[in-house]
Amino acid sequence: MSNNTMLYYLSTIAQSMAALFAVGGIFAIYRLQEINTEITNTCRAFKEYLRRLIEFSPQGLVKMTEKKIAER
Amino acid sequence: MNEWLDKDVLPSLLALFEKDQSSAALVDYYTQLNNQIDFRNELQRKIWKPMIFTVMTFIVSIFSFLIFDRLNPHCLFLGAIILFLATFLTICYIVLYIKFAISGPQAEIINNPLTEDFKNLRYARIEQIKDRMRERIPIEKKKIKEELEKNIKQSKKI
Which residues of A touch B5 (CB under 8 A)? Predict the structure, then answer.
């Protein structure tokens, strides 16, 4: 192998590694942001669901009907 | 954000809503949330390996590029082969990481608090809980109806 070939080879590897680092890093950051948003949305939905579940649980339903009957 | 979400929360919630038909949805929500959190943790943990390999290969290639003239040709040839292998390995790691990241949190259940044993057992137990919940729906519906009828009768008596 000539000197030039080796120099080209080494510089190509260095540049490829820099590019790969950038691509991998950007992809990881993008996915992390996306999954964080998903988690926030699921948390919000879960909390809302729990709130509704407490309101409309069987005991809650009985209490509501009792209230309605009392109102009559 | 998730302080309220610990491992004891699901059993207590299930106990609280044991008589409710929507307990299966509760398990679904909880599992989904856990999957997403575990996936995020895995995503953060797995990024180090490809990144460290990339930086190491980059540094070695730059360094050998700079001290190229002083190196022994035989040593240089061996170094070139090792660098080639390192590059190949790094590309493999990055591709695997990207594949994992694309797969999304639904791909597999990691560290589900419901079961901490084997993966198959986790699926089986989740399905078992869901089935049990589904079986309870008609029974609980009947009970609710009876309770409501009782209430109505009592109110009529009054």
Answer: 43
Question: How far is residue B35 CA from its own chain's centroid?
Answer: 3
Interface contact A32-B40, CB threshold 8 A: yes
Concatenated DSSP letters of A35-63: HHHHHHHHHHHHHHHHHHHHHTSHHHHHH
CB burial readout B45-63, b (16+ within 10 A) else e: ebbeebbebbeebbebbbe
Residue B3 φ then ψ, to 5°: -65, -35
| Closest C-alpha among A18, A32, A43, A38 to residue B101 | A32
In this predicted model, what pLDDT tens digit does every residue of A11-22 receive, in sequence order? 999 999 999 999
Long-range Cβ contact pairs of B124-128 (< 8 A, separation 24 or more): B126/B27, B126/B31
Quick: pLDDT tens for B136-151. 777 777 888 888 888 8
The Cα–Cα gap between A31 and B47 comes to: 11
**Alpha-carbon span B146 to A11, nearest angstrom:** 80
Cα–Cα distance, A24 to B47 (Å, whole number): 8
Asked if the Cβ–Cβ distance from B91 to A65 is below 8 Å, we say no
- What is d(CA B3, CA A42) in angstroms, rounded to the nearest whole number? 15
